[in-house]
């Protein structure tokens, strides 16, 4: 289009795909040769990549409404049929469901003491798991996924799963695979060469895994319907069923199909994000004992004589706050946000973006942008502390994105990260195991990124022994 952002010359059919590293395209997307706003062809479709705080903020915050759409042509949009919240296009159904989810999560405790109790109850299960490895090491690959998924499952389905339950272990495994594969090369081929879709190629696996997860959610819904008492909701799912009843005759956007996608959305968005951040946290803490020691001193000092932490305590723990934010910055969990589209013709800097242009907000570029951070490329909580040791949050801290589609679970995620880490650090010391080899901090790219597998060395703090 006329006056479109510049970018590398595309090839027919493939566009610029061959110029992107299929394992991790983040470096290629940060190429500043064309400036902070540049275009890229994914197949025959142009997309615009936004790098750095200034343009990301200009698009997502200053022109929030104009950039609030979601693409409909991606494999992941097909899986979700553009329903639910995360991948729903900007319109009344998205608005109704976002409002419903926020109101209902609050009703079941978000922002209240009851949510803290729910989270602390779940942390006690992680403690039991870790205690059984005290003095040795364990594989934390699924531990934090189980925690995060149990917290969200208790809100939406009113139930938690035991840590060895094969149902939840399978769901978590599918979820981890999906968030990587749906952004991999096969997903790209599915999008750009539609004639390939009927063939038995690896992207059929992605569809199959997603359908398995969907079927599982449908089973939970059926079970719920039979045990439900109308008007006495136990969880978000019951509230949704009540909502369907209330609005049955009025052209409402609430129905069984949307419900399944909303539940999948909350389960998926609420699990892989928080848990990957927690796993990254223990890796950084194990390899930075001085940070762990300073957090421990702050925690024991503030919580002296008390059984549990409260989310309010964060204000009295600037160093712990700084550590958690630094973990989020380095774990870079949702590196490219969730892709947007423009809802109308719009202008960015001097460029014109027609309605329907796909926009990729490179959040990773903001979280490591030189000039925004004291130590952009290393783990250092000082990034969030001022000269007198007070906690400060730089504007470039955007792991939850920004604007009208900012992460709906930010409040829940922040509460989880704080309560889980404070409780664990008070009770355990994490150490790099002797047989752990050399720590590898590189991330496995995907819709959500994660650390490579590692072992977690666990010591019980002396104050906690017998
Ligand atoms: C550390 C944890 C988390 C991170 C880093 C994170 C990050 C993000 C990001 C970057 C987006 C895209 C926003 C945009 O398009 O601009 C998003 C959207 C979303 N997140 Fe989170 N998230 C986290 C936890 C959660 C949790 C716990 C929930 C569950 C309640 C959740 C639910 C959602 C939903 C429903 C959306 C879609 C919002 C919309 O399209 O209107 N997230 N998240």
TrEMBL record:
Compartment list: Membrane
Binding locations of heme: 407
Cofactor(s) demanded: heme
Top-rank taxon: Eukaryota
Pfam families, per the entry: p450 (PF00067)
Heme as UniProt keyword: yes
The keyword Membrane is annotated on this UniProt entry: yes
One GO BP: xenobiotic metabolic process
Entry GO CC: cytoplasm; membrane
Chief localization: membrane
Keyword terms of this UniProt record: Heme, Iron, Membrane, Metal-binding, Monooxygenase, Oxidoreductase, Signal
GO molecular function: heme binding; iron ion binding; oxidoreductase activity, acting on paired donors, with incorporation or reduction of molecular oxygen, reduced flavin or flavoprotein as one donor, and incorporation of one atom of oxygen
Entry's family note: Belongs to the cytochrome P450 family.
Protein name (record): Uncharacterized protein
Recorded name of the encoding gene: LOC109889394
């Amino acid at each position: 289009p006329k006056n479109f952002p510049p970018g590398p010359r595309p090839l027919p059919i493939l566009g610029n795909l061959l110029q992107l590293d299929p394992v991790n395209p983040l470096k290629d997307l940060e190429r500043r040769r064309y400036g902070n706003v540049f275009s890229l062809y994914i197949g025959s479709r142009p997309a615009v990549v936004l790098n750095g705080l200034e343009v990301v903020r200009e698009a997502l915050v200053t022109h929030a409404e104009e950039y609030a759409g979601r693409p409909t042509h991606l494999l992941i949009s097909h899986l979700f049929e553009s329903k639910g919240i995360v991948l729903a296009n900007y319109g009344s159904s998205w608005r109704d469901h976002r409002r419903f989810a926020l109101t209902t999560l609050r009703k079941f405790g978000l922002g209240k003491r009851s949510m803290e109790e729910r989270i602390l109850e779940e942390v006690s299960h992680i403690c039991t798991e870790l205690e059984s490895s005290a003095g040795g090491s364990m594989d934390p690959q699924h531990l934090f996924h189980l925690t995060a998924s149990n917290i969200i499952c208790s809100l939406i389905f009113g139930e938690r799963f035991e840590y060895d339950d094969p149902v939840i272990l399978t769901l978590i495994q599918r979820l981890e695979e999906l968030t990587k594969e749906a952004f991999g090369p096969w997903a790209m081929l599915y999008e750009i060469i539609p004639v390939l879709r009927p063939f038995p190629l690896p992207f059929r696996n992605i569809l199959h895994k997603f359908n398995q997860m969907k079927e599982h959610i449908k089973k939970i819904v059926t079970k719920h319907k039979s045990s439900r008492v109308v008007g006495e909701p136990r969880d978000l799912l019951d509230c949704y069923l009540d909502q369907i009843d209330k609005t049955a005759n009025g052209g409402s956007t609430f129905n069984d199909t949307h419900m399944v996608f909303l539940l999948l959305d909350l389960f998926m968005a609420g699990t892989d994000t928080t848990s990957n951040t927690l796993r990254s946290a223990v890796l950084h803490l194990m390899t930075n004992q001085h940070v762990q020691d300073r957090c421990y001193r702050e925690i024991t000092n503030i919580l002296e004589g008390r059984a549990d932490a409260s989310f309010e305590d964060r204000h009295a723990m600037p160093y712990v706050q700084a550590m958690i934010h630094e973990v989020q910055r380095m774990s870079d969990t949702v590196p490219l946000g969730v892709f947007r589209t423009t809802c109308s013709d719009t202008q960015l800097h001097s460029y014109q973006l027609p309605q329907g242009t796909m926009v990729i907000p490179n959040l990773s570029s903001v979280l490591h942008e030189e000039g925004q951070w004291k130590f952009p490329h290393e783990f250092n909580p000082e990034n969030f502390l001022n000269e007198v040791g007070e906690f400060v949050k730089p504007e470039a801290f955007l792991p939850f994105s920004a604007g009208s589609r900012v992460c709906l679970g930010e409040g829940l995620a922040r509460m989880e990260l704080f309560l889980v880490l404070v409780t664990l650090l008070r009770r355990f010391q994490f150490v790099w195991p002797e047989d752990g080899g050399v720590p590898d901090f590189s991330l496995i790219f995907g819709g959500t990124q994660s650390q490579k597998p590692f072992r977690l060395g666990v010591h019980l703090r002396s104050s906690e022994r017998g």
